[in-house]
Write a structure and sequence with these properties.
With 212 residues, the chain is mainly alpha-helical. Helix content is 64%, strand content 0%. It has two domains: 85 residues, no CATH class; 101 residues, Orthogonal Bundle (Arc Repressor Mutant, subunit A), CATH 1.10.10.
């Protein structure tokens, strides 16, 4: 049974995340996602006890929000795989470093294979993108995702990756913001592409000392 304290503190957040992922995965009912998120609370008693005892509410909220999104992503991936008919092990999650390697070539309309494609953080095989023209499929996926993100994100990425020599300082100067603010805008734009491509790879999230 989920503690009343958790329901009181996080009922709205659970509903919001369930609705968000149901919009993204339309074959899955929001109520089913909501139930899965409450199951996360039920199976993490040690972790939640630790977080309630050792973290301020603001920091605890961030940890729980991240964990709930991870649980929702994992559940939706599994249910989509069952619905469509493939194994979750077949899913490729796009890493930000892969996207950054391809964007300069996409934005300059070049069909050369990115020079650093074998050096990016690609799992399970760092050479897989380069084999059998797989890199062309990756390029197509990233290009389509770029077209689908908000124009403000596209603009930042055009400035940052529209040339092989542009730096974050150049972005900051172009937008009249600090280099740190420029980096954050680029990171948010890259994250938007990651979301368009299916989100980040879910991470293991067991209870402390358990295999929940």
């Amino acid at each position: 049974m989920v503690k009343e304290q958790y329901i009181e503190d996080y009922n709205s957040l659970v509903g919001y995340i369930a609705y968000e992922y149901a919009k993204r995965y339309r074959m899955i009912d929001a109520q089913d996602i909501r139930q899965e998120l409450w199951l996360w609370f039920y199976t993490r008693p040690n972790k939640l006890k630790d977080w309630y005892e050792n973290f301020e509410a603001k920091d605890r909220d961030k940890l729980i929000t991240r964990s709930l999104r991870n649980a929702a992503q994992k559940y939706c991936n599994k249910e989509k795989a069952k619905s469509v008919g493939y194994e979750t092990s077949d899913v490729y999650y796009y890493d930000a470093t892969v996207i950054e390697e391809f964007l300069p070539y996409i934005l300059t309309d070049s069909y050369s294979m990115p020079a650093g494609v074998n050096d990016v953080n690609y799992k399970p095989d760092a050479n897989a993108i380069a084999e059998n023209n797989t890199w062309l499929a990756v390029r197509t996926d990233i290009s389509k995702a770029y077209e689908d993100i908000h124009e403000r994100h596209q603009n930042v990425l055009r400035i940052r990756f529209g040339s092989l020599t542009t730096t974050l300082k150049d972005v900051a100067k172009e937008l009249s913001i600090s280099p740190d603010a420029a980096r954050k805008r680029v990171d948010r734009a890259i994250a938007a592409i990651v979301e368009e491509l299916g989100g980040r790879r879910p991470y293991p999230d067991n209870d402390y000392g358990n295999q929940a």
